[in-house]
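Fig. S4 source data, part A: sequence.
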Amino acid sequence: VFASACDLVIVSRWNLAAGISDEAMYLFGVAAIRQTAATLYALPANLLTSRLCPRGAEATVYAILTSFQNFGTAASSIP
């Protein structure tokens, strides 16, 4: 909702009336919100993946599990 409001502000040019450039409004509005939302969306999966790793082999097992997740994500988007 907030990201859409930022788009509305840019299109309506209210940001220029407030002295904020289009670039700054985009950077601190839509771009930052999308990245934050993507990080929060992936956080539970990353947490569960880290909890699956046995002690002593955390780095190797986490890398393997994450590579399988990334491969699955990439394969699922193939039309």
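Fig. S4 source data, part B ends here. The first helix runs from residue 2 to 12.
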